[in-house]
Amino acid sequence: FQRRGVNTLRLLLSFLLLAAWEAGSGQLHYSVPEESKHGTFVGRIAQDLGLELAELVPRLFRVASKEHGDLLGVNLQNGILFVNSRIDREELCGRSAECNIHLEVIVDRPLQVFHVEVEVKDINDNPPRFSREQRLLILESRMPDSRFPVEGASDLDVGENAELKYQVNPKGYFDLDVKRNEEETNVLELILKKPLDREEAQEHRLVLIATDGGKPELTGTVQLLINVLDANDNAPEFDKSVYNVRLLENTPRETLVIKLNASDADEGINKEIFYFFSNLVLDEVKSKFIINSNSGEIKVKGELDYEYRNLYEINIDAVDRSAFPLTGHCKVIVKLLDVNDNTPEISITSLFLPIKEDAPMGTVIALISVSDRDSGANGQVTCFLKPHIPFKLVSSFKSYYSLVLDSSLDRENISDYKLVVTAQDGGLPALWATATVSVEVADVNDNAPVFAQPEYTVFVKENNPPGSHIFTVCARDADAQENALVSYSLVERRVGERALSSYVSVHAESGKVFALQPLDREELELLQFQVSARDSGVPALGSNVTLQVFVLDENDNAPLLLGPPTGGIVSELLSRGIVSELLSRSVGAGHVVAKVRAVDADSGYNAWLSYELESAVNGVRSPFRVGLYTGEISTTRALDEADAPRQRLLVLVKDHGEPALTATATVLVSLVESGQAPKVSSRTSVSISGSEKAVVDVNVYLIIAICAVSSLLVLTLLLYTALRCSAVAAEGACGPGKPEPVCSSAVGSWFYSQERGQRVCSGEGPPKTDLMAFSPSLPQGPTSTDNVSFKNLIHIDFFP
Length: 800
Prior knowledge:
Layout: H1 2-14, E1 20-22, E2 27-33, E3 41-43, H2 45-48, E4 62-64, E5 72-75, E6 80-83, H3 89-93, E7 100-107, E8 112-121, E9 134-139, E10 147-150, E11 165-169, E12 174-180, E13 186-192, E14 203-211, E15 219-229, E16 237-238, E17 242-248, E18 256-259, E19 262-263, E20 273-277, H4 283-286, E21 289-291, E22 297-300, E23 311-320, E24 327-337, E25 345-351, E26 355-356, E27 364-371, E28 381-386, E29 391-397, E30 400-405, E31 416-425, E32 432-442, E33 450-451, E34 455-461, E35 468-472, E36 475-476, E37 487-490, E38 494-495, E39 498-499, E40 504-506, E41 512-515, E42 526-534, E43 542-552, E44 560-562, H5 568-575, E45 578-584, E46 592-595, E47 597-599, E48 610-613, E49 624-626, E50 632-635, E51 646-654, E52 662-672, H6 681-731, E53 743-744, E54 749-752, E55 770-774, E56 793-797
Membrane topology: Single-pass type I membrane protein
Organism: Heterocephalus glaber
Keywords: Calcium, Cell adhesion, Cell membrane, Glycoprotein, Membrane, Repeat, Signal, Transmembrane, Transmembrane helix
């Protein structure tokens, strides 16, 4: 009958489950009876939380509990919360009036945390139980209405299921009186209804029955064995039947709890009293307290702990020394007072790490719960965080906190945080506990690769070997791992009619720039292009740098002889370097015979030409000379009959390159008498004179430009040195520093950093102290070489 009633109660409660939002706290509340079968319906948790069934699995719906995670489960197909394993309320919560299971429901994308409270309802599944059989010794001389204490039963259930009623059978000699004391516990006393006669009956056997208030009712029984004794007229009596004592839980051993004093109206030996713990006192109580049988002093024997047990009921017997002793009874109730002797406890149940540096404010990082075994103010715990930037603690429910992001993160500034969570109770003095949370910041690709400067200037000698290394670009990315992995590429464009990639290439990993073919300054003086650096993040970020590659001239072009555009055989001879002239023997010294003209496709020193005659043959001094820079062939003296009628002059045209390149011109001079000279010579002379003047002008401009640029360079160096010394003097010292040279490499390329005072080398090899400067093109005179651009290269060597 009892089992069928329990099952009926479980079935009824399972269909009457309560699911509602708890007012003010925002938590979902359900109830379920204890001992429910596996699979018992608790509530539609997904529906009550406003979640769709289709999103439970993708959002990683899960239920976590600090201590009872396996008691309840959720069916992800229908979103129903059900009983997963046996729930025993007495095992979970003991005699506590309330018994709740706290659940944390967590879903991701975005992260949400819900608090669910499931109340475990008590069912009447525990009958009243007595600790042991009880025996009483009662003198036959005891008067009716004498009272004798009896130990009651205990019921593990709570509420009405633990409300006990008592009765005793049979009721011939004794009756039962039940009272409630200050601690709301039952005090049972056996009342003698009529005198006892030991000669008639030496013992009486009674049955004490305890019935709880559950539906259906459960009962427990115990046998009372009463031995009837002969002796004394008066039993010892205490001042009170119940003594109440309050003790601090940290009371040391040997501390006096109470001194009992009982009196006996008899005389002599029957008046002497001894004190003992009653047979009703359990061994656990005897391990905590001790009584002096002579003085009646009760002292602390063992360690007391309020959190383990806060109330002790001690039954004391006062026995006289008669041959037939009489016994007086009292009860000492010791109530412990809480002391702040338990530090708070911190539990970190969930960590969502690492956290991305672009995580929005309010992102939950960890779930933290705190507890304290003390009570009252000693058990009230507050929680705070150090350092609090950029995080904060948010109280989510009672003693639960969420560690959330309070401001923006930057992994490049701080990549990880060591947070200290401190929990402090409200006791005096306060106790606290700490827990360390390590928060790692995950990298996000928010930094593009950066070059040291936006533009680089590179000098490369022409005729470089194919595939030669001319420069290395380098970009730095402040991100980490793949987001910091930089690759390089050319920004493709057209250079004339050809693609940029036919001239140069860049290594994707090292950033080395290579010239794919020999460069020709006469074809390409400046190659300007961009190199792109991109990281490997998603999406990838990048930046560009500009390279200006100046092609430096090398002496790879020999001087080229020029002649007037006359055409015919004369022009052909001139193109071969052969000039034929008629000269009267009557001319005097300094007469201009002819002018050799030549140009050089190179620039600077490599295009600066000089002229000279080959040495005289057979030691005969030639009557002619040539201007060193003008190329004018003139007489050195008056001609005479001894001079050969045909003079062959070999003019050597040489540039100033290293090594110098040359060209030769042969001038055939025929000496004739004055009357045989051609009439047109005057016109030719005029034409030649005009051409000579143009070439002379060009050389004059060349010399002036060289001097001007040299002066400007010296002035610039002096000004730079003065400014440099003044800057150093402002820092505290100025002295003769070493020059900052432009670096050259073994493959013939130069690079000059645009940053002040920075020395940058491209390639390998010892640096040279060469300073290269270019002057603008000279203005051209009205000569036959107007289509040639003259550029002067000033090369000044500084030697230490």
